[in-house]
Design goal:
mainly alpha; Tetracycline Repressor, domain 2; 9 helices; about 0% strand; elongated
């Protein structure tokens, strides 16, 4: 049975805050988005805003959680969304192409992930679980490709998944320093090397 009253209103307000925060951080970035600006955007005081999250760190952690939920559905990494088996090469290339359009969220992710590496940080557990989920999802997708004959049979699916995640994070860091780095193009090239196909999907010809 659906909850009503103050609880439901509180949940709705929290969702409103996260939706607005995604917009603001995507355009302004982590360092230039203040709690005061977020509070004003949703008609609350700073104290009122933090009532829903507890601290700025918890707020930004939940912003990233919301971003991940949306990205998993949009780019085919959520099997429960009815999109069929995960297509790791296609999904990751489309994801990093999208990330290039939301620089503030890339900045938030990269800076927060680095800060949260220290045990005791409010987002430490979140990022640990996030990497575990991503590796598991990528590993399952890569293993399906291997079994379908799209990858070498002796390939280690879990190791390739770990390397793909590292490449995505590394490309984002380079891109923040040099926006001319085409993250999607480089990632597509990587998958082309792994699958033995060109970036347009065509099988490479063996040299005579």
């Amino acid at each position: 049975m659906a909850r009503r009253g103050p609880y439901a209103k509180g949940v709705a307000k929290r969702e409103e805050i996260l939706d607005k925060a995604l917009e603001l951080v995507a355009s302004a970035g982590y360092s230039r988005t203040t709690v005061r600006e977020l509070a004003e955007a949703v008609g609350l005081s700073q104290t009122g805003l933090l009532h829903y999250f507890g601290s700025k760190e918890e707020l930004f952690k939940e912003i990233l959680r919301r971003r991940d939920e949306l990205d998993r559905r949009t780019f085919g990494f959520d099997p429960e969304a009815g999109g069929g088996p995960v297509d790791v090469p296609d999904g990751t290339v489309r994801l990093v192409a999208h990330n290039a359009q939301v620089p503030g969220l890339v900045q938030l992710y990269s800076r927060f992930a680095s800060e949260a590496a220290e045990a005791g940080h409010p987002a430490h557990e979140f990022f640990g679980e996030r990497y575990l989920l991503a590796r598991r999802t990528f590993t399952e997708g890569v293993e399906r490709m291997r079994q379908a004959g799209e990858l070498p049979q002796d390939l280690d699916a879990e190791r390739l998944a770990t390397l793909a995640l590292a490449l995505m994070d590394g490309l984002q860091m380079q891109w923040m320093y040099d926006p001319e780095v085409d993250m999607a193009d480089h990632l597509a090239h990587f998958w082309g090397l792994i699958t033995g196909r060109g970036e347009d999907g065509a099988a490479r010809r063996e040299s005579p």
